[in-house]
Amino acid sequence: MSSDGEEAFIDGLREQSMEKVMTIKVAINGYGTIGKRVADAVDAQDDMEIIGVTKTRPSFGCDLAVRKGYPLYCTYNDAEKIAAFEPAGYTCHGGLNDLLAIADVVVDCSPGKVGAANKEAYVKAGVKYIFQGGEKHAMAGMSYTSSANHTENMNAAGTRVVSCNTTGLSRTLVPLYEHCGSLKVECTMIRRAADPGDSKKGPINAIKPVLKVPSHHGPDVMTVKPEIDINSMAVAVPTTLMHCHSIVAFLPQGHGLTTESVLEMWRSNPRIIIMNGGETNITTTAEVMEYARDIGRKWGDLHEIFVWEDGVKLDGDTLYYFQAIHQESDVIPENVDAIRALMGTEADWKTSVAKTDAAISAYNGL
């Protein structure tokens, strides 16, 4: 072999070795509504692999994990609870500590308010950790959404991917803030009462105002973009499909924007879908969800937020608009981008987003 050929051969081996080193080993703690979606989104990426998912007990979710080829672990480390999987026909590879021992990062998708005990286990195991929006910002000391603060989360020990509503608000408000330099916002969350698979919650025949002002959504935006001055109110309504936001943004004088340029700004940013309701006949959240199913999205998910073009109006310095949020899925790709931030493998948020979204689309055959 010539010296040039030998050098190229060695370079090729080195690149292959680096690729293997950079494959991020991801554990999913809690394989439910969010966990199963995050697992598939991670599995789609060429720089990550799912090394295990946890369930508290044998259940239907175990069947799904087995079909996907994801190794099953028990949420607990109790030997009796681990052993309970075998009689139900499932191979359980161990408890949470066993899973953490082989992981680089754990995505915590367990029910809200149990994060404190879980974080203690993650820190002890020396793994990076990502919580969901059901936990408080103080749990991780950091919060994340790709458009707002990807860079600030680079190489952090852990973070919290903010809630579906906060994620949706960030996607349209952050570009406005970055253009204007300041922004004051009043918004009302018209919230779905429960996820489609949750039969325990209400209201059923009522509109339930959140009697705390502000609701947590506005302050939550400020955990990822504290420069945005935002206040929020919320009401729960008897639907399971989506959340809807009614937003009023007060722009500084001299902003130089028009209704059309605001729409163009949003179109140039990822994970925002803009459609004219009158032209498409997509005027309700039911039709938005039908659109997601029609285009072949798995589970009928819509990772993007949906903005009605004909519901956007800039009147002087005041911008009015509506947007819809699919609560089960808009945070899913954000978890993938958060993994890259924590692991320090991609510094540019738009590059990570493009990679994440392309891989998920290819994975789903779209």
Q: What would you say about this model in short?
A:
This protein has 366 residues and is an alpha/beta fold.
Task: Please give a structural write-up.
There is one protein chain. With 366 residues, this protein is of the alpha/beta class. The chain folds into 2 domains: 3-161 and 331-363, Rossmann fold, CATH 3.40.50.720; 164-325, Dihydrodipicolinate Reductase, domain 2 (2-Layer Sandwich), CATH 3.30.360.10. Helices cover 39% and strands 21% of the residues. It has 15 helices and 15 strands. The strands form 2 sheets. Strands 8, 9, 10, 11, 12, 13, 14 and 15 form an 8-stranded mixed β-sheet that branches. Helix 9 crosses helix 10 (217-224) and helix 14 (332-343) crosses helix 15 (349-363). The longest helix is centred in the first third of the chain and has 19 residues, at 3-21. It starts with a helix and ends with a helix. 43% of the residues are buried. Residues 17-21 have low confidence and may be disordered.
The CATH class of the largest domain is identified as: Alpha Beta
What would the average pLDDT be, to the nearest integer? 93
* CA-based shape: globular
Query: In sequence order, what are the helices and strands, one letter per element?
Result: HEHEHEHHEHEHEHEHEEHEEHEHHEEEHH
Number of strands: 15
N→C terminal distance: 44 Å
The percent range for strand residues is 15-25%
- Return Rg in Å: 22 Å
Instruction: Count helical runs.
Output: 15
CATH architecture group name of the largest domain: 3-Layer(aba) Sandwich
Proportion of helical residues: 25-40%
Structural class: alpha/beta
- In CATH terms, the superfamily of the largest domain is NAD(P)-binding Rossmann-like Domain
- The low-confidence parts are 17-21
